[in-house]
Amino acid sequence: MSDDARFGLLRHVRLPGPLRLDGGALLSPVEIAYETYGTLDPQGSNAILICHALTGDQHVASVHPRTGKPGWWTRLVGPGRPIDPTRHFIICSNVIGSCMGSSGPATINPATNAPWGMSFPVITIRDMVRAQALLLDHLGVGQLQAVVGGSMGGMQALSWAATFPERVRAVVAIATTARHTAQNIAFHEVGRQAVMADPRWRGGDYYGHDDPPAAGLAVARMAAHITYLSEAGLTEKFGRKLQAREAKSFGFDADFQVESYLRHQGISFVDRFDANSYLYITRAVDYFDLAEEHGGLLAGAFRQTRARFCVVSFDTDWLYPTAASRGIVQALNAAGSAVSFVELSSPYGHDAFLLEAPEMNRVIDGFLRAEP
Amino acid sequence: MSDDARFGLLRHVRLPGPLRLDGGALLSPVEIAYETYGTLDPQGSNAILICHALTGDQHVASVHPRTGKPGWWTRLVGPGRPIDPTRHFIICSNVIGSCMGSSGPATINPATNAPWGMSFPVITIRDMVRAQALLLDHLGVGQLQAVVGGSMGGMQALSWAATFPERVRAVVAIATTARHTAQNIAFHEVGRQAVMADPRWRGGDYYGHDDPPAAGLAVARMAAHITYLSEAGLTEKFGRKLQAREAKSFGFDADFQVESYLRHQGISFVDRFDANSYLYITRAVDYFDLAEEHGGLLAGAFRQTRARFCVVSFDTDWLYPTAASRGIVQALNAAGSAVSFVELSSPYGHDAFLLEAPEMNRVIDGFLRAEP
Pfam families recorded for this chain (chains A, B) (predicted)? Predict the structure, then answer.
């Protein structure tokens, strides 16, 4: 089954590559599914690349073809918004390793004419960025006015400045980190083990069967989802509120609203995401350590870039807390980069960047308009 | 297969009951596996009940018959320790719902002559305490000098003072809470879903097969284990350190030490614990809300007791943080109880109470010796 058939009609390009990956493998072809909004100006100066998070996709500001839901960042991207197709040429591509049309474990390995499965090469955040650079070449975009992302998207934004310093004039890195911590890795490992523990995973070779490892993937999503929300936010939203019934059931149905909510998060996720992609992308994020790629010193990653940086954190984000953003800012200062940093207040934890965040919008709007 | 055969020779009593449970069911018989250390003095005044945590057992100060490991709290309990068999009559029983010999899903339902499985009634923390009271009756212990517990053991200790106010002279509640929060419930729900997602769980009816839902239970344990450790502790212990190999494998083996550690935690757990018991005990903990049992006001739980309280929290415990202990202390103050409260510093998060904690020992020793 082709990706186009599985995931709807996408803008999609098959580039010959080969793309040399950090792990040593050569990826060829390099398939990239993407969306663009707006028009590149004659000077080629108004391109903004949006990088999506772990389970995100290219549909940043347009309807998702499978779920029918609006784009995932229409609060920030759209007419009248800080990133505006009437002013900017906006590009958002599905990262390699993912499952919305870009090369990943569910796409066809031309050498075997079968899905890659677990023979797909392990990738890194930098590999995702390299693939995006190939797409920009294809689109005729030399330099980006800005690269913008939250969470794993923020990692890509930082990696862009480090990997292609001459191609980025500004970086917006939101709710992110320059390295995955032991606790971050631990949560991802729980998710991977949940997927792999599902007998339907079949060593990743489940595409021929109409029976994917949905139960394991749902558990993985549930565990991860807890890290996206703040303890205070969960308490405010659910507390110990029971479901519609009046009293405890003294059984194992979802008695508490938070249980029902989490189960829904798990179940709805498996409809839109591929289990193997979850393994590959969490692995890429766990491998992310921008300092390590540059001699062990984070400032080293920013020595070449002349980009301006805008770093945003949220006070209740315990996945990538403000301390992680401060580490980025200190390294940028050490490297002599221009950086503005703000910690915003929100009850919503890590997910805050995807929700209504007027202050974040103001910060990003001001930062993008301030271009020298 | 009898529990004695599965879990080694235990001190075990089969009490006729029936025990009326919070859920309405009558449990009969009530089997309790327990250990005692020391001798009850002629006045019957030196009995100390130790309550174990979620996956703990009665082997508080003696070798575990299955794992061969020393008792789980020998740092606090033993000759020359704050709780000392040369001075105290120490009792520790396996909670009902568990799998070390007390009535639980793995024991035999006399009505069917088969293991209860998921037909075992859902229990509460208070039900565990009621079963312990039956054991004390059996042992001829009228009143406890103290009831002592950490984590879920602390919940039982608090519930003892609320449920049998006349039978407890002192309560030591460590690293615990008076109610499970939405985030606490969420983590437990992930664990339960991981178990139930394992096809080997078979609706809880796996005892006849020699093939328990080990993979699901291991994932549940991994997720829970993260909550027992602090982020700082994980970083100090593991950081991003790789396994013995020199570089990343660009594969899905355990590259990082923290992955290998977590996998080990999961795998070793399934050798000593029953998956259905994990469901029942996490449910009991999620149901725990001491205020709710007493008209919605926590102070109401402590109106009857004249016990002295000692409440201990650890500064890096994010499962049951100091704020949860403060809530208990405020309610005790409101109820006019004598309470001493200390927050101790430790890098080890929730698990700190099980580790070397000289300050905790000093606090508990002083508190127990100060009896009027």
Answer: Abhydrolase_1
